Structure formats: structure tokens, C-alpha cells
Fold each of these.
Amino acid sequence: MKLKHIICSVVSASLLLSASSCSDLLDKEPNNYSTSGFYQSEAAIRTGLTGVYSGLYYNPAYLLPFPVMLDHWTPLAVERAENTTIGAGGALNPDNATIRNWWSVLFTVVARANSILKGSEPYLDRLGGSSMQYLAETRVLRAYAYYNLISSFGDIPFFTEPVSVDQYNTTRTSKVEVLDFILADLAKAAEDLPWTARERGRVDKAVALGLRARAALLGGSLNYGGKGTEYFRIAAESAKSVIGQRSLANNYDDLFNKAGQAKADVRNEMLFELMYSDQGSRNFHYIGFGQVSRNYGQTGRHPSQLLADTYECIDGKRIDESPLYDPKNPSQNRDPRFRMTLWMHGDTVQGNTTGTDGGRIRFILEGFNPTTKFYNFNTGQWEEGVNADINSGAAWTSFVNAGMGYIWRKFSYETQESINAQTCNVPIMRYAEVLLTYAEAKIELNELDESVYDAINQVRARAGMPGVSEDRKGNQAKMRQLVRRERKVELIMEGLHFVDMRRWDIGDITNAGPSYGYPVATAYDENGYITAGGYMDATPDMVPNFRLSEKHDLNDVASYEAYKHKLKVRDVNRFWDPKFQLFPIPQVELDRNPNLGQNNGY
Amino acid sequence: MTFKRNPFLRSWSLSDWRLPDAKKMSILLVVLSLLRINAFAFGQDISLSMKNASLEKVLKTLKKRSGYQFVYSNDLLAKANPVSFDITNGTIDQVLAATFENQPLTYTVIEGAIVIKPKTVNPSPAAKSFETTTVSVAQQNEVSGIVRDDKGKPLIGVSILVKGTQRGVTTDLDGKFTLRAEPSDVLVFSFVGFITQEVAVGSKTQFDITLAGDNKTLDEVVVVGYGTQKRVNLTGAVQSVKGDDLMKRNATNTSNALQGLVPGVSVTQPSGRPGADGATIRVRGTGSLNSNSNPLVLIDGVEGDMNYIDPASIESISVLKDAASASIYGSRASNGVILITTKRAGKESMKVTYNGYVGFNTPTAMPDPLSAIEYMEAINVARANSDLAPQYSDQLIQDYRTLGADQHTRYETDWRKLIIKDRALMHNHSVTLTTGTEKFRFFGNVGLFSQDGSIANNDYKRMTMRLNSDAQINSWLRVGADVNLRSAKTRQPALDSPEGIINKATTFVPVFSGINADGTWGYGQNGDNPIASAEVSGINTSLSPEMILKGFATITPVKNLDILTSYSLRQLTTNSDYFVRPYDTYEGGVFKTTYPSSGTEKYEGWSQLLTKQFNLQATYDLNVKNHNVKLLTGIQTEDKASRYFGGSRKNYNFPGFEDLDHGDVSTSIASGSHWDWGIFSQFNRINYSFKDKYLVELNGRWDASSRFMSDYRWGFFPSASIGWRISEENFFAPLKSAVDNLKLRGSYGTLGNQDIYSYYPYAATISPGYGYWFEKNLTTGAAQSQVANEKISWEKSTQVNIGLDADVLRSRLNVSFDYYVRNISDLLQQFPIPIFVGLSSPWENAGSMRNKGWDLSLVWRDRIGEVKYSVAANLSDVKNEVVNLYGKEYVGTQITREGDPIGSWYGYVAQGYFQSQEEIDASPVYGARQNVRPGYIKYQDISGPEGTPDGVIDAFDRTIIGNPAPRYEYSLNLSAEWKGFDISAFFQGVGKKDIFYSGYGAFPFYIGRSMFKHQLDYWTEDNRNAAFPILLIDGSGTNPNNIISTHWVKSGAYGRLKNLVIGYTVPSRLTQKINLNRLRVYASGQNLFTISNAYEGYDPEVSVSSGSFYPVMKTFTFGLDIQF
């Protein structure tokens, strides 16, 4: 009996033990916040909004922020592989992964914003502090995503609340309707925002209205719903309201490196930036490293000759019109932004700076010879060394072999840190753009007054260029030419030309043929050194023809036909199809919801 | 004096000869049997002449000449007469006959030893009895007979004992014996390698005994869920592997050792990386679309990792393949169950064994990179093919030819040679101690395994200790405690993964600088120099101690009722840290960059997984006449909790001071999280057998998982199986002599799976990890990333299994065949939802798929004369078909859609190359027409938007072009033993499988990389049937020849000599001299040769995704087994 007692007690004790722990065992809590009822406090909204901002980091390739990438899909720049620029049809098909990701990133921002806006709705009357400001920021970010979606894809699926299961087979909403929504929403959001955000990185009233102007300009230029004029007016008014609230930085060069961006005047011009930092878990990008000389880094992206030739001479005239232009020395007597944006053969290039003694490199960019000069920081002497742009395993993608003769200085000239892990911010919107948007909208409305000239002059004057010449004043076509030229040279690599090219409908002429570049060498000695050709033999007649047609002239599109045999050529198969005006809807999205329908031509 | 120099005799206490002779002899017999000294060949020529020599001298001479061991006591020799004879070319028989002709002694040959003993008073002419007068023998009769093996050949030296006494004899050279026995006695016939037989004497005086070969198959006991079962009584598909068979393989871990041993269990070793070379195991095909497809691995009932234990401590591994045998594990068992039982001590005296080997590894295959000159010429060809000017001038190439590379202005780097070692060291040591008494038994094992990698700073060390103890407290209570400790350490370069470094070693451009003439690091590709990455970029260390404690008690309150309760705790900790140490790069004497530019960085992380498991179960055996019932019922709780945290800092300015505290505080980062879940289960089993002829088994298990909402939490997983042992039927009797066992089995059952990677799939949650940098400071952000589904519940699979087991020809041939259909339903999956939702898809229970297959295993064991050999062959196949996905599909380079196997390769059909512009003009092309030229791959126009060929090559022309899942897996194990030598050869292979090669590993000049020698066979006007298309520089991975097509899909079928072992067990007469019971030396080789159709340089087993891989190793080892 005793034995039985022991057994019984052991067994029942064990059973009790397990039974009592059973509920503990099975009722486990997830380790993250539950969605229901989350957005009822200022802290929750702020945390969620931060999540929306983080959705802006989109790197289509190798930590390359999208604004920089977008402009490389235009003829003002080229990617390193032949004939592959997405913007001009290279691999532009519904299966393209980059396009699918672009679509996905933007809708992720929309979804996160919608869940905050919808989730906070029941609590609006008792939310305090900066909640309203945060909700307004959320609207601006959502509008920014929608702007990019309609400019890239045209009509799109459109939601202002989290997508429900029965909306999975929705059809597309007209881009006009989407545009009208964001214009209204931005105006509303602006009411709850300060002109300048207290915390750098946040969107503010200047961004809300600046974005409203940018979006309206899109609708105006493409005459959305036949309401072009109406949109130009909204663009002009929105931009005008920002004018005077912010100001331009003193120095153009300061805008694109870490040291310059720390200055107060630069902060004032920067309306909306993608934020990078070397603090804590550090957030960096590879813009500089991916575009410099092969002697230090990659040359994955190249500025084009077309861009270089768009810069005026210092007298304010186009190179085919100015007596100051010298084909042997193209960078002489040019708009100062030429040298602040581009490096070319013969320039002294700052390869790298880490801030300490180690890790510096300075050399002469050499377009023709297998060696070049490097500066020895220990001895203070210049020494001959291997020129990796010509003589290395990686030279096939150098500016010499894959480029037009230039490399980007913009974002590469860094004085405070190494360019292979840069932490300078990437501008999404600057005050300069707002000024030029105002000018363009007013020009399109043919309301040419002093405010227009003043807006353009502010931008030009900061760069050191003369103001609007008298012969342009009052001439809509000439002003149109000037403002377009100004947008290109001022804002290149900031993701705006990608849309401008479509707004101005110039893809057909800029993408009509190959890209031509620097004058190639014609003779080499047995060591591979140049003996003839290149810039040495450039002749005064080697000036491109901008007047192939009125449209070419208006948009500063150069033709090199006359001396193209002397020039480096790239993308021989470049072509244009009107369907490229819009991206295709990603195929997988159509597979999942055929009701969306494909854009024309794909 | 002889015996004093003979430790063998001394150790067995025979020297003082105090024991009765019979006892001495029986001990000797047993010992000799144990030692497995093989019978020797008579008929050897001996010429010997003796004149009045002492018997001792004669024996010594004979020993020297013949190698035979003589066993005798000195007292005995004292009685001997002098010996004289003269024999020329005689046999040992003749010599021995002459030697003992006039002696009061006689001899017996027992397993190669010659035992000398006194002649009995009344010797029978045929038998040499060693029966003595110590037992009174009043009513004894003389019985005699002959013992033969199953082929009718007389067996020499068979021990015949009267049961319960020490009386006995051994058979003579003719297999005959004579002894005295009472009619009530039982004679026990035993001989090594044969099944012991007992025969009652009765009135018989003449016996003709046949001993059956002992392969233990009929009595074999197999471990099954929560218990054991006799193999013949199994009704499910269970296959068992012995620990010794695993040991033989000398594999780096248990999962690899399992390869090919069990049909239907697909084992693939995808990597050769030390410490990470565990195999992927699939039991009867892939069991799930999205959730885990790994089988449940239980080590002594506790979930664990089979690669964490020393193979020397494994007693057996059972694989529960069908639903019926696995369903006792219900919710966890849907992908099959692997039960590992570790060794425990029996009642035995202390035994210590050592197993050790040392060897080296060398990659089975590596692709050959181009030389600098070949590279430059090929690049120029590729550029010319795109109308681009040459990149390398003729002058430069000429300079490489005439002047060579100076590593200053002209570089040539053989990355592969500089990075990948020819051979890497590997060694393993394992010591086992077992001892036991009636009351207490102990098994202890300590193991050390160490393996170097193929690149610098990459190695693995594993130390294991297992202590299993059992105590019988009293007649009804038995308790035990097991302790298992492990520590494993892996090291690898900090900056890049070993796979990444190996990828670069094979694909980096040869004209990049690796090591400069002045000894500085070259600039490589943008500073990335894989040689420096491997050698000096810092070390990433992972140290993972594991502790498993288990206590159990078995109570037997009444006969046949066992109540078992056990509790186990498993604590798996991983401490990882790395320190990134950037290096400076130079080219042409000029400083280029410090790589990486992000500077020094130290990370330390800690994670822990705690598993607590409680079991309470009762089993009851009931035997009433011919009915046998076994009942099992029990509960189990399992609680898993995981936590982790980690932190890092950058910028360490003082070399040597590398603690986190020494780093820049402003770069400090910390993170941490946790998850936990639990399962409660109740399980029951009934086994019923009638006359051991009709077998029935019923299982039922209920599981509740915390990972589902309470309404969807419980799952019930029943199964039933039946068996019919046809061989036990009366009508089968005529066949019984040929077929020992024939059984038909059938089973049906349901299993569950909850193992999806999301821990709380039912909950819509907002998770942190979405920060943004306001004012350059990181700010916490959160977002919902996935749509939730509150109704998420168990994935289920049902399986029908029909099997046949046969043991034929006196159990020398074992055949086992199974056919099964496995239906997996309520698939846990994430149906793609539109991207515009902005969240990833929710988990759903939807859709179904089916695995159909069969497993066949054949084993033949026999001996030819003194050669014992066995042949084991396995063959299996499984075919997967997705049955229902509600018309949806998962598409990428692989497609999963209804009616086809999951993850089938999906792409274009290549039709050779375009050979002329006319052909291009007349054909549909992929991409922009103006880009296509002769030498491009021509694709087949299969379909279009309207379902018919449309003259355009686009997404509509994709079709299924291969199946990556292996089919027709086979293995063949040949082994033989002869006189202490053993040899085994293990072949293994896959009959059908398709591999898609892509990325850096397959495409020439893919995104800035080089190409391989075998790719020089590219298309040109003069080489139109080339292996590769026209050479192009593929700078961004958009080369239309490089899209997925049949061109890049190769057969992954292979056959390989997986393992070859040649061993020699030193005869015990030699080992005894140094006090060893057993000494075996062996040489072994793994992956010695392979026949495959894979791309040159790639192993067919390893996964070469985009050229990032760690080669599987060819291994040569030399080992030693010692038993003290």
C-alpha cells in the first residue's frame, strides 16, 4: 500500500504540475506591439511616422540613393553598362526588378502612412502635443510617394486607408484624380506645419508647398485632364508662398558635402533631405565611391557630354554662341557649376579623405596615358604611378572606356570623410528648385514679370552667373529655354531631370542616337602613351550643333554629327519609344491583379 | 616460463591453474570466441625435423614457423615425452599428429589457437573432450554428433556446453564432438558469427546440428517513438542505423554520415565549410511549401541537433518515415522523425575505448581561372563583339608575354592559388568508458573534433561530453541522469564570409593586384582584396556551448506496468564576436585606400535558446495466451524561449585594446529581443498482436501550440497500421526454410506542422527596426510589415504506406520495400498579395501537394570460406506534385504551380546559337533586335498572350526546364572481412536532378569578374558548336544570353565513391602483449571520385548559388580504434 501511495502521489503531483503550467505554456504574448489601438498617443504616432520616413531609403543599386539613380536614367548621364539605362528603354520591361522595387517602396510608404492616418482617426480629439504636426508630416510623405508613382507610372491603384482584402483586385485610379487629391492634401497639411522644421530631416510647410508646386508643374506640363493652365497656376502660387520663407546657401559647392551641409545657410536652402549620419549604427551611401576615377573607387555612373555642353560660358551664353568657348579646354570660362559638378582630364582629383593622415589620395585625372601623377603626402612630391583608368583590370568601366570623358565631382568632393562610406545628406528638395519651379510655371502661363527674372537671377547669381539677359525678357520661348537649362545645370543628380525630361517631352531627341564624348587619341607610342589626338588636337570647329531643330535649340540638345568620328562613342543602340514616357506596371503585380491593366506599348 | 611472457594467459588468471580444467577451458573458449580469431588454413607446407626435443621447444618452433598460438599450462608440459619426427612438405596436421603421437596430451584447434590438454582416460577416437572428473557422472550417457554451418560445412571449434554447468567440449577438425550428458540436460552450441542454439538431449545420442548465421535481424529491436519494438513486429516504415555504421564513415558530422544509409531519406551536403557542413535532410521529399521541411530530430527523446554529438556516443538512429510511426509525435512529425539513441552501459566490467583519426581535406572540385594573358585577350574579344575598341593594347599583352608580370606596373594574381589551401588538417579523438553493476551503470564519452578550413583563419573545433547513468534503486524504481555538454568554436575571417572569399578567389580578375612586389596588399577590386580579407581583416568567432540535462525515473508498481517520467533542460548559448581590422592597399607603389573605409569595428553578441521538456508516460504489457497488448499513454509539455542581445562600437584607436569599452562611444549600438512558444501534447498508443502473426497499432495525439489563437490551437493526429506476418501462417511452413520472415504492412495517419518562421503569425504587430536619422541622430521607428491572419492553424499531412519485409535464405538476405503517398494539405503559405498593399503576405492554411514514392532496401550478408561480406543497396524515389494552389503560382527562376513539382526551374528553351544574321532576321528574339548577333542563344517561341507563338520572345515563352529535387537516390555499400582485414566501399548517388547555374559562378565576365578556363570554348565563326555563347561583357547582368534557359541547366545526376575504408585488426595474440583488447588501424577516404555532368570545377552536391559556395571536401583519414 505504501508503494501505491508513493506512486500515486508522484503521478498526481506531476500531472498537477503540468496542468497548472499548461495555461502559462500556451498563452504567450508576441514580442511586438499590436496594431489595434496603437496610434492613440503622440509617442506612438511619432514612432510610426519615423517608420514612414525610413521607407524613403531606397537604394536601387549598391547603397545608391534613388534621386541620384533617377537622373542616370536620362541622357544627361549614363550607367556603366552599354545600352542599359532604364530611363531610355534598356531592360525597360514589366519584369524589371528595379522598377518593381520602385513601385514596392513607394506603396510601402503609402501603406505605413495610411495605417497611421487611419489608426489615429478615433483619437484625433484627444491627441495633444505635436500630434497634428506629425500627422501633417505623414500626409506630406504620402503625397510625395504618390507624386513619384503618378510621374513614373501614370494611373495607379490609389488608397487613402489601409488596403482591405476586397481591394486586392481594384482597378487603377486616374493620375488626375490622384494629383488633385495630393494637391488638396498638401495644402491641408501645410496648415499644421512650421515653415522650417525644428528637427532637421522632417518635412515642413516649405516642403509641403514646394512639393505641391512640383506636383502641379507635372500636371501642368503634361496637361493632366486638360487642366494644364490650372495646374501651372497652382504651381506658381504654391512656389510663390515659399519664396521669401527660406533662402539660398551662399556657396553652391557647400550643398553636396558633409562640411558644407553643416552650415546654417545650407540648412536653410535644404528643404527636404534624405538623412545620413556617422553616428551610432551609422547610415551611409556609396554615391561618391561609385562614380569616381578607377584610381580610387568605381566608375559606375558617368556624366554625359550633353550635360557638360549645357553649361553656359561665364558670359551667360551657350558654348556655340560664346566666343569664350575653347574645345581644347572645355572647362575654361564656364559656368562655375561646371567645375563644381564635373572633373575632367587634367584636373587634380581629391580621391579620398578620412580626416586623419592615412587614407588620402590626390592625383591628376588622365584620359589618355597609362601612367599619371600621384601626390605623395609623406614627401610632398608628385610621383608617377599606374593610371588605373587605362591600365588596370577594372579600366573597362573607367571614364575613359565607358564614359564621356568626365567623372562626377558633385557628391565626390568630400573634405571630411572617406567617400566610400559617405554620410552627407542627399537633397530631395532645395529652395533653388522652388524658385525655378515658380519661374517655369509663370513662364508657361506667359506671365513674364520681374518676379520671374528675380527667381532665376537668384539661382544664377549664387553660382556667379550673369542675370537674365535683356533679349530674353518678355520672350516666352527664350525664357523657357533658359529655365530648362538652369534646371539641368543647377539640379542635376537630384532626381528632377528624370521627370523634367518627360514633362518637356524631349526623350525622343535626347535619346535619338548614341552618346558622344571626349575627343579620342589617334596615335600612341610603343609604351601606350598618346602622341596625337585627344584634346591636344581638338580644333575650334569642334563645337556641337544645337540647332538641328527648334526643339533641339529650345532644349539645348546638341548634335555631334559633324565630328563624331573623332569622339568617344557610347550606347550606340540608344533609341526612344514613346511608351518610355511611363514605366510598365510590374508583371508580378499584373499577375496578382490583372484588373490593373498595362500601360500602352508594354 | 612460457606463460609468464604471455600476458594473454596471465591476464586471464590461467597461470596458477587452480581452476578446474573444464572451467579454464570454457573461459578460454569464450575468450577466444570473443577475440574472433579466424580459423586458419590447414594445408600449409611445413618441413621440420626434431630429435628428442622437448615438447616446449617443439611448440615454440611451431609457433615461430606457423604463426599459431599455443595455449597450455606449464604443469602439463612437464608430463610430456620428448619428440622426434622428420617431416618434409607436410601439413600442420601431420606435424601436430607426429608431435602428440606419444604424448599423454592432446590438442584442440580453436579459432586459430591450439589448445593443449591432457588425454582423457577413456578417449573416444574422434572427440577430444576436456570433461574432467570434477563432476560426478553417474547417469550420464555419451552423446556425439556433428555441427555444421548453414551450407553443411563442418564447423571447427564450436563450443558445446551443458547448460547450467561448466561442462563442455569443442568440435574437432571434422566438426565432430562427443561428451557425456544426462537426458534432462540441454546442450548450448555457440560459435562466433552464428546464432547460439540450445538443444535438449532427451533420449537422443546422435546430433546433427546446423548453426544459423547470426545477423541478429530477426531479434533486432528498433527504437520507435516513446519506446522500442521488435523489428519483426513493426507495422510502420521505420528504418534503423547502427552507431558503428555511422562511425565507419568518418564524416565530419552525423548528418553527413547518414547519407545513403536509409532509403527515402535524402541527405545532401551543400557546403564543406568547417562547422557549417551539416547536411540538409529530407524524409520522403520536401514536406512543405513555406514552412520548415526538416525532420524532427530527437536525441534520447529531447529535440536536438544531430551534428552536435560525437558519433561515437550514438547507439542507433531510427528514422520514422511514415505517418503511422511518426504520428506519436503529432504536430512535430510532419517531415519525419529521426530518433537518436545514445549509448548506455550494460552490466559489464569496465571497458575503455579510444577512437581517433587524423586526416586532411582537399576540395573535390574547383573551377580553373584564366591567366592574365588569357583574360586580356578574352576581354578584347568580348569588347570587339560589342563594337568596342580593345581594352588591352597588343603592346601590353606582349609585355606580359615577354616580361611577365612584375606586380608593380603589370599585375598577375592567381587568386585561387593564393587563397585556397591544397589541404587542410582534420582530426578527431573520442574516449568512451562504460562500466556497470547490478545497481549502477555508467557510460561516459569525451570527444574532440577539429577541422581546418580551406582558407586562412577558418576552422572548427567541437568538444563533447556525454554522461549517461542508470541506477536501479530497488525492484520497482529505476532512475537515471544524463548530462550532455558541448562546446563548439568556429572561426572565420571577419570581413567577408568564407563563401564570399572563395567566390572572389575563383572569379576575381587576374590582372588585379593581390600582393605587390614590395609585399604590400594590392588594391584588388576597389580595395577589396580577398587574400587580405582572409588573412588580416580580423576574425569572426562563434562559441556555442550547449548543455542538456535530463533526469528520469521509471516506476514499475505492478508487473508489466512501467511509468516513466522525465524532465530535460536544454540550454544552447551562442557567443559571437568579430573585430574588423581594415588593411591598406597599394598599387604601383601608390597608396590607394584603406579597406574597408568604415574603420575598425567590434561586435559582440549573445543568444540563448532554452528548451524545457516534461514527459509523463505509462506503458502496460498484457499477454494472455496468444494475445499480446501493449498500451502507451502520456503527456508532454515543451517550452521554448529565445533571447538575444548584441552591441558594437567602431573606431578603436589603440591597437591591442579591443574590448567594446575601448571603442568610440558615439558609435555605440545595442539591440536585443526575445520570443517564446510552447506546446502541450497528449499521446496514446495501442499495439495488439495475435500469435505474433497479426499486428495492429493505433496512435492518437493531441497537440496545442501557443503559436495559434486559442480557437485554432488544438490539432488531433491519429494513425493506424496493421501487419501480417505471412511467414507465421501454417500454410507458409513449406517455404519457411527459404523465407524466415515475410511481413506485409499497411498504415495510414495524419501529421501536423507549425514550424513557420514567423513566431506569432496570427498577430498583427508593429515592430521596431524602422529608424530614421533626424538631426543625424537615429530615432526609433516602427512599422507593420505583414498582414496578419487570426485563423492560422496547423499544416497537415496524411500518409498511406504499404510495405513488405522479407528475410530470406536463413536471414542472409533482407528485403524491405515501401510504397507511400503523402498528401500535405492546409499548406502554411504566403500567397502573394498585390505589392500595392504595402505589406508582405499573411500566412494562410491553403492548398495541397503530394509526394509519391517508394523505398527499397536490400541487404545480403554471408561468408565465403573465411571471408565475411555484405552487400547493402538502397534505392528510392519520390515525386512531388503541387495539387492545389487555388490557381495561383509562385514565379521566379523557379516556379511552384499546380500540377508540377515545387520549385521547378522556369525559363526559356535554348535552341543552340544564332549562326547567321539571316537566321536572326527570320527568328523571334529576346530583347531589342538590334542587339542580337550571331553567337547569341536562340530561344524557342513557345507561346504568347493569346496562348500561341507570337513571334516575340518574352515572359510567355517560359516553361518548366528542370527539377532541382533529387530523384532516384541510390547507394551501394560493399564490405568484407578477412582475417582481421576489413574493407568497405560506399557508393552513393542521385539518378536525376537539374542544376541551374547562374551569376558569378556561371557567366563569363559577369559584373566585373573574370571567367574560367573551360569557358574559353565560346562561340566564334570558327567554333559554332561551342559550349558557351559569344563572349560579351556583362556589366550589369542584363546579357540576354544569361537569362534562365535550358542552356544553363545541367544534369545534377551523379555517382560517387563516397567512402572507402580499409582496416586491419591486429591479432589479439599480439595486442594482448601490450594489454590491449583490441587494436584496429584503418585508412579511409571520402568523396574519392565522382561521375557527374555538372560544370567543370563544381561538385554536383554543393549548392553553387551565384558562385558563392564552399567546396565539398575529398578527405583522407588514418585512424585507430583501441579497446583497453
Amino acid sequence: MNTKVIGLEEAAALVPSGASVSIGGFTSQRHPSALLRALVRKGVRDLTIYYHSAGSDVDLLIGAGCVRRLEGAYLADGVFAPIAPNFRRHVQQGRLEVEDYSNAAMMARFAAGAMGLPFLPTRSMLGTDMVDEVPADRTPGRTAAGTPKKFVAHCPFSGDKVVLVPAIRTDFCLLHVQQASAQGLVRIEGQEFLDVQQALSADSVIVTCEELVDDDHLRLEPERNRIPPFAVQAVVPARFGAHPHSVHNHYDYDPDHLGAYDSAARSDETFAHYLETFVFGPADHCAYLDAIGGLRRLDQLRPKRGLGYNPDLRRKDRGTQ
Amino acid sequence: MSKAGWSTLELMAVAAAREIANGEVVFAGTGLPMLAALLAQHTHAPESNIVFEAGSVDPRMQQLPMSVGDSRTLLKAAQAGGLFEVFNYVLQGGRVDVGFLGGAQIDRYGNLNSTAIGTDPRRPEVRLPGSGGSADLAALSKRTVIIARHERRRLPERVDYCTSPGWLSGGRSREEAGIRGGGPAALVTTMAVIRCRADSHEPYLSSYHPGFSPAQVQSQTGFKLDLADAIETPAPTPQELAILRNTVDPERIFLG
């Protein structure tokens, strides 16, 4: 049977500069971080990122100079980084275009793209400045291409006011999941976040996974598989591939690393040092895992069976700063 | 810790928890809202249900999550889905009784800014994380409770950017904008609890925390408050404090 399995660097080579990309996960959870580090090493530029609740996944790409434009709802690492630091600095300095939506609006936009619809209505965002926000070309409510981006309309049946938001179709969706098969079947454990809708609104889906498992194994419980295998282009085995973010049932987030990231990302100089230490310095993903403390640290992040997380993890020292 | 034996954050968590009635569906964000929701569940509202936008519905948490996507929100959950299920079927479907919000700026009518401080959102003085689910909760919950630090600059007459709609410009303006859910019921701050009048939606001081006077609260507020009905915020009970400290946040993640 055909295999979709490729390596991390090979997967990163599929994503060209200028591509539109969405990234799976949620704040400090289940991002394809190892693949993102490979993208930074390869020197990808001018990405347009579509996101809902991103964290130091998108913030890493911003800080490394890979991003030209953002459309989304929220960028922060929860308590670890209440405002994503590179995002904040780059926007304040006018180095980045941002178009703001709410999470429900981004959900509707990805869902519309996944369903092949041109738009979906939402009852959210009425009365907010997001609806009136002026896009980069300064024409209210329209993009440079002249397409309306948010549109207050009356329902033709009930007369209710709704906001119409346009579908998203991206070139790539990058996901990290617990299990995948070489044939492209995907198994997500715990919360799904918006991974399914993001995947199905992309032309190309690249999945990194903790475990490569037999296709037949995943076909024993088809009701737990939410993405059809023919929608997946490539599968990349990457154990601990989401670190410093968490993967339910596999490892917790790393409060020490996320705290150090938040501090480092507050200036260009300190962030350059972070990139050198954790992205450009390590020769590959295994070397990265050594750089963050190796098995000694990864053992401390191991979840307790039945909980999905480690209840004894020290979270406070870094976490509340 | 005050001489009274509790901190401002503890008083705020207790005041916010008291906004939740038993049996209600509560939509909670990161931080103090989680303290309030869990405290309510462990005290007067054992049958309340907590939902998180990242996908978890009605869990029995043993530890505070660091964000709404944390695996800790999944413990003994009734359902684990994603944003699609929670936003569409739970929130927009009209099943959320009370949503908890926070923001960098809150104005006279409870409109909230978590996007950008300054006159031009494209080149802001301070860029904030953005709406996340805040605008959605503000529009689609039956009512909202806002939690904030009480500083004059954080409570202006009008927000720089309206991320999440409160009562917009007061009166019937929220209804006229087509927003279906109810608006802010209470603003719980480090100094006071502020509410609004029924039809005008003009703000009034509901209670001031022990150690502050109504005049002090007004002097730290950028809009005019009606002080006529103000009472002192009831102190936390020993039982509430014990549960908050020993059961809800023993790691002191949010209580500090």
C-alpha cells in the first residue's frame, strides 16, 4: 500500500514562501512545533496565517520573520504568556498586518471553507469594532482585492441581523495528533479544538504524530476518526513533536520552557538568542529534545494514566509571572 | 492579605462566584473566572455546569487549568468536542446562562476592549491578544459578568476599541444592533461591584469592598457612577475561603 510517511525536513520543504497556512492546536496545546521549527530553519517567508486561538506556535513564526499577514482571533499562551510577545511587538511596530475576528467567527470561516460554502452567518460580532475594522488597503470592509470581509445582513427568512464572514481556504494545514497511519488516517484524543475544520479547509494537510500506527488499528473504531484519509497529504512521525506544548495522554506542557520563551520573546535580541539555542542550533528534532533537558525533563511532563496530564507538575514558579 | 484575613483576589473570586446560580450553564475563560466557577460548584451551585470553548463540556476538574484548552478541563467531562460544537451548539444555540469576561478596558456601558489600546488599531500603543471567544460570549450568553482591575485608565468613558459588546451606547442600542443575548449583569473589580439600571443601562455602584469608600471608588472610575444604593461588599465566609484555598487553588496559581 502507498505510504504518505515523510521526514520533518522533507515536510517543511513542501511549504513555500508566500503560502497561506493554518496550524492546529489551541494556545499551549498540541501544535506541530517540531515542524514549525523545521520551517523556520528552512527560512520560509511571507506566510499568511489564519488562526483562532494560537500561542507560541504562531508567535515563534512571527518572531523568526516568517509571517507577513495574520487573520484570526487570539494570540497568547494562557497564563504562561497573557499576550504573545513577538506578536505584540511586531504589531506595535507596524511590521505585521492583522485582521481581527472572534473565535466563533473564525470557526464559521474555517467551517465554511471545509463545507465548500462561500460564507457562513454568525450572530456574534454585531456592534463590535471588528465588523468595521479597516483592512490594510484602508477601504472600509474590503480587502485589496475588493472582496467584502465582514458584512452585516438581514436573514431573508426571519429578518434577524447576522454578520456574514467569508470562507477560508488555505494552501496548507499543519497538525500534530496522537496517532496516524502511513495511509493518512488520523486519531485525535482529548479536545479536537478546530483541527478537523482547519484540515478540511486546506488544499494540503501535513500531519505530525506521536505514534505511527497500523491503518487497520484505527479502522477498528472508525467513529473516532474525524478526517478522511484522502484529505491528508503527508504523515510525519515526530515523538514529542509538540513540545513545549502539551499532547493529551502523552505529555504535559512545559511551564519552564514556556516561561523562558515568554521572557526571551520580549525583544528582538533575546529572541535571536532563543532561536539560536532551540531552533537553529540543534541539528534535528532529537538534538532539540536534548537542548530542552532531554529525557530527564520529558519524564517530568509524563501524564498520570487516566488523567491525560501530570498532576504533580510544578506549574507555578514560571507560570504566574 | 488584608487585616480581615483575606486578599482582594479572594474577595473578587467570592463575589464573582455569587453571581452564579445553582443549575446554570457557565462559560468560563482563563484566570479568575475559573476560580469563581469552581468555587460556586463547590459551594452554593453544585449543579452548575462549566463549559470551555476549546471543547470540554461539564467536567469535574481537580486542578485549575492554565488555559481553556488545558487537559485539566477534560477530567470526567461529559463531552469532549471542539470549538465547532461549543460555539455552535452550546453558545449560539442559546444554552449559556452566564459568561465570564475580562479585558484591559471596560467603559460606562460595559463594552470591553481586549484588542488594542490607542487611536489606530493598525499601529496601537499596546496590542492585546484579541477577542478569542470574548466577543462571542458577550453577544450570545444570557448575561455576562466582567472581572477587572480597578484603575481609572482601565475604566474610561468609552473604550478605544469595542472587542466585546456590552450595552453599546445604553438604552435600547444593544437590542437595535441585533444582539440576541443579554448584556453585562455585573462588573467585579478590585474595589467594587458595579451594575447597571434596568432600561437606561446607566452604571451604579452596587457595593464597595471593605476598606474603600464610594467616593474613593468614583475617583478611580473614568465615568460617572450613581452612588445612591451602594452597600459594603459582603465579606467571604470562612467556608468559602477554606474551599477556595484548599480545594480550588491549593497551588495558588491565580490567588498568588
